[in-house]
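Reminder: ligand-aware prediction takes two inputs, not one.
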Amino acid sequence: MSSKKKCAPLNRGIIFDKIDPRDFAKIDFMYCCEQCSFFIAENEGCNMGYNTKNHLKANQLKAYELHGRMCFCRNHEID
Ligand code: SF4
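Here is what comes back for the chain with iron/sulfur cluster:
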């Protein structure tokens, strides 16, 4: 008799990283699509084909105000 274990499905959601308010105040870091080389301003799209919704500046700042976290895009490109 085989004893196959069932694997629980991975709960993969978007990751929001906590940001220290002191760092947010002091460091001029890149956190939104509008600062990325792949951003298409005309339609708020992404040349890499990613969904920009959570990475747009307004949404990033809103998330930070609500829970002190931001959703960084791992493919953010700076020229
Ligand atoms: S690569 Fe990421 S940060 Fe850059 S435009 Fe696309 S979704 Fe936004």
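Residues 33, 36, 38-39, 46, 48, 50, 52, 55, 73, 75-76 surround iron/sulfur cluster (CB under 6 Å). The helical segments are 21-26, 57-67. We will return to this case in the review session.
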